[in-house]
Amino acid sequence: MRDFGTVSLSKTNMVNQRSENHPGDAVGKGRTAGVSGGVEKPGDATTRILSVCETAQGGVGRYQDLLESLVPFGFSLSVLLPESDKGILRDATRAITFARNRRGPVAMWNLVRAFWRQKRLLRPELYFFHSTFSLLPLTLLRLSGDRTPAVYCAHCWAANTLQTDGWKSRIIRFVEGNLCGLADLVVNVSASDADTAQRFAYRGRHVIVENAVDPPEPEARADRFETPGSSRVNLLFVGRFDHQKGLDLLLPAYDLARSSNSDLRLHIVGAPVRGSELPVFGEGVTYHGWVGPGEIDSYYRSADALVVPSRWEGLPLVVPEAYRNGTPVIVARRSGMHELVDEGRTGWSFPLEIEALADLLSRVGREDLAKMRPLAEETYRERFSRGRFAEEMAENLRALLGGKRAG
């Protein structure tokens, strides 16, 4: 965890008196149109957190499971998220849902209405807002005069998703850079996200608490892929088939590399985004579709290396997931992903160009990758474990709550 201080706090952020929470208030269990869910009333010894998600797809949903690790530290967690995303949570009993078929005005209205209802019924002592569109209920909370402590996490700043510095990029930086400062604490999931916030002078007090993942499945296997010869190299890609994840760059790079290194094989885990078609796979590519969380560790463990050609990321969870299985990673030098790799010891990084990736893949050997496995696994234990995340996050939240109460 790293705290890089307060930058340009607005007057709104400097108000340090939160609204009173009333012990003994009942927690609502009813339903309203567009809003559903019931929340158990936590014990008096816990601090009630309401986690607010406009969507829980991808890493945001996985993050909610991580936040459950705060329970032993004296926190209780309820998660507001779309009904369609409820199944993402490991513990769906924590879910409060709202109707969301697709992003748009109706879905945002349902989110705000559900948020206001739970604000009244649950009376949270801490709010945790996730991703750009949750800045709307955060803004409304502050406009109402409510100063209950709030945390914001971008899970990759929207500014990082734009490849050009035009008017759209400037508007996004202005909006997220100012509204994030309405939170009392901004959690960055990686050093790269924190660097973006510093570079563009985003408001608020920012800290880094790197993402983490659970330990691997104890029954994970290492024989999913064929290894007929000692020189066979099984590469793995895990992710959506969209512009961000860069599969469109990996496939031609792999084809080029395989023309000079016939030992390479590429295994694809994932699926196209809605409305798009399955890409054409060349020789030596095996498509596995989506793999469930109970099976994915067997794919990581069977691979010689994971390839991450993303154009942007916050902190891609596939990297610590690979490490927990002792699998080295090959990452693009984008969004600070190279900082997740001990070059030549837990993997390699490359400029995000087809030719550069092809050159690197053509030179990888199974023996060199096998030597990296012990340090890759050690990196998971020391840097990306759930326990480390829980301790750092709890420390930050306790400091925030203590400071607000002292004020």
From TrEMBL:
Protein name: Glycosyltransferase family 4 protein
Segments forming domain Glycosyltransferase subfamily 4-like N-terminal: 58-215
Domain of life: Bacteria
Annotated organism of origin: Ruegeria aquimaris
Location of the region described as Disordered in the Swiss-Prot/TrEMBL record: 1-42
A matching Pfam family: Glyco_trans_1_4
InterPro entries: Glyco_trans_4-like_N, Glycosyltransferase_grp1
Regions of compositional bias (Polar residues) in chain numbering: 7-18
Lineage of the organism: Bacteria, Pseudomonadati, Pseudomonadota, Alphaproteobacteria, Rhodobacterales
